[in-house]
Write a structure and sequence with these properties.
Helix content is 26%, strand content 25%. The strands form 6 sheets. Strands 22-23-1-24 form a 4-stranded mixed β-sheet. The structure holds shikimate-3-phosphate.
Amino acid sequence: MLERLDCASPAPPFRLAANPKRANLTRDRRVAHSHNPTPVTASAGRPLRGMLRVPGDKSISHRAMIFGLLAVGETRISGLLEGEDVMATAAAARALGAQVHHDGPGLWRVFGVGVGGLRQPDGVLDFGNAGTGSRLMMGVCGAHPITTTFDGDASLRKRPMRRILDPLERMGAVIVSQEDGGRVPLTLRGPREAVPIEYRTPVASAQIKSAVLLAGLAAPGETTVIETEATRDHTEKMLAHFGAQVRVSTEGAHGRRIVLTGQPELRATPIVVPADPSSAAFPIVAALIAPGSDILIEGVMTNPLRSGLLTTLREMGADISVESEASEGGEAVATLRVRAGGLAGVTVPPERAPSMIDEYPVLAVAAAFASGTTRMRGLQELRVKESDRLAAVADGLRAAGVTCAIEGDDLVVEGGGGAVAGGGMVATHLDHRIAMSFLVMGLATRKPMRIDDGAMIATSFPSFLALMNGLGADIA
Ligand code: S3P
């Protein structure tokens, strides 16, 4: 019934430009982080139809490389996301002593050095645009007796790293140099032996939690992380999967306490990476707002700590049904059927934010097409993502003729009841999710939407254009 589209697994890492179809959406890696901005336009037209599978989950892919580095023996990974962010983590794993082999689309093998076995890298660890890769690797490196320098692109250079450096200093790391109160480029020197700590994360952040737990691997005794709001649990799951002793219990109404016993020998173990719900969010919202659409999305991870967007869209009246369910790599996955239809504005509670933190830009697009007002509460963390997403989303919505306001940490969007003018040019600020969100919007606005630069899409979803256009979208 529905035509099946292939995942369009990207070309080998760092050679994406070899594919002429995608060449104009690939950053030039010969000169670190300089690229020619690539404007992209999305126009409304046909309904979206067909079946697709989005690439592997970015969070799990970063962690797969990192656990591969820290395990002894060969870790086989399938379904790895081959976006630029994860490739930066793979390059860092190599620089720290791992052997990393690419065997075919999504298939990788990592020969690790074991906890305590990291090599002193020769040069700077350049993470490009990748907040997750850089912060998790700071946790790893900051607890080993090596000196490492971290850097990245203009977006990463603006992002706060004190949130990682503070607990690492308590564990014995020395911050040799840092920019502007804790920004990259920065240099870390790890202690001879890290000190285990009990750490309460100051903001709901899986990156902070994960950095402390990864550092705790190198410390003797128990490292404890307490979070008031539960965040994505991929690190805890992977620690257990690789044979570490980790205990997780509830803390208060919404939180968790994670206790890790340090200095384990991690066993190399195969990893299957399920499809990324944060990437699936784009075709999901596109199919909801483009009239007449009806699509199937295969094997989307439905981990409850990642599925706040689905909860919210269903509250808005979205027609999203589960066609089948399975388990992949220890995670629940589902094939989702999404059909276009009217949406109604809702209030999204702040405690839901950690389970959909990366999905607010595209939820704001859905809200623009809903009838009535959508209020998204407690979005302070959006200010420190790849861009200030609160400002970037509000500016983009206004460029499309949508009425919206930032009230404290809330975003309030007045829906157009299915009709949105569009016609604007959106500034993407080196932010892949801003780029994809406003291209999705253009599939249903009266006038096309234009973004100033689509190059960053390659950081997380290199096949975005091919997959969306394969469903019938007009993005060029
Ligand atoms: C991530 C955690 C989130 C998310 C990011 C990926 C992770 O960041 O925004 O894209 O893989 O741990 P915070 O933990 O800082 O909220």
